[in-house]
Specification:
This protein is of the alpha+beta class and about 200 residues long. The protein has five helices and nine strands. Strands 1, 2, 3, 4, 5, 6, 7, 8 and 9 form a nine-stranded mixed β-sheet that branches. The longest helix is centred in the middle third of the chain and has 15 residues. It starts with a strand and ends in a 17-residue tail after the last helix. The protein binds coenzyme A.
Length: about 200
Amino acid sequence: MDLLIKKSGKNNFFTTEYLTREAFWNLYKSGCDEHLVLHQLRESGCYVSDLDLVGILEGEIIGHIISSMARVIDQQNKEHEVLCVGPISVSPPYQNKGIGTQLMNYSITEATKLGFKGMILFGNPEYYHRFGFRNAKEFEITTKDSLNFEPFMALELGDKGLMNVTGRFFEDEAFEIKEEQLIEFEKKFPPKEKGKPKIDINI
Ligand SMILES: CC(C)(COP(=O)(O)OP(=O)(O)OC[C@H]1O[C@@H](n2cnc3c(N)ncnc32)[C@H](O)[C@@H]1OP(=O)(O)O)[C@@H](O)C(=O)NCCC(=O)NCCS
C-alpha cells in the first residue's frame, strides 16, 4: 500500500485520538485509555512533534505512531534520554496490510536521524522482534520497578546507542491515567459500548 507518512500537526490531533480509540477499544481492557495517553503526551514536555506521525492513504488518515522522550536512570543516578514508543494504531479495517510496519520503520529512521540513542516499549514480542527490538534485559535496562519480562523491549539506534545506557526506565507521567479525566475526555467521542477485552495481557 502506497502510504504517505508525515508529521501529525494540530489539525489532525482529534482524528488521531479518535483512530487510537477505535484501534484499542476493548482490546487489552474494557474500553481503552490509549487515546487519552496520546492527548496527554501532546501536552507534556516529553512531546516530540517530529515523532508524532500519521499514515495517510488516499487522503485519509489510517494509521498513527508516536514516540516521546523518556529516561533511563543508572546506578549513579545519571539520566539518559531515550524514547518511549506508543501508542501505535492502525484503523481496524486496514490492519494486517503492512501499515503498522511502514509506520514503525519510518519512526525508527526519523528517531535515528534526530540522534536518539534507543527506543523502548511494552508490546507483543512477536510483533516488535521483526523491527529489531529485544528484551531490554539484554541492554541491562529494567522497568522502574527493576523488572524484566519479554514484552519490555528496547531497540538500539545509531552506532551502539545504548552501550552506556543502563538502569531503570521511566516513561513520562503523561502515561498515567486518572479515571475521572478519562470519563471527562470520553465525552468528546461518540458513545461506544464497553465489552470483554479481546486480548489478555499480564505484564
Ligand atoms: C499492532 C498494529 C499497530 C500493527 O499494525 P498492522 O498494520 O495491523 O500490522 P502489519 O500489517 O504491519 O503487520 C502484520 C503482522 O503483525 C502481526 N500483528 C498485528 N498486530 C499484532 C499484535 N497486536 N501483536 C502481535 N502481532 C501482531 C500480524 O499477525 C502480522 O503477522 P505476520 O506478518 O507474521 O503475518 C495494529 O494491528 C493495531 O493498531 N492494533 C491495535 C492497537 C495495538 O495493539 N497497538 C499496539 C500495542 S503494543
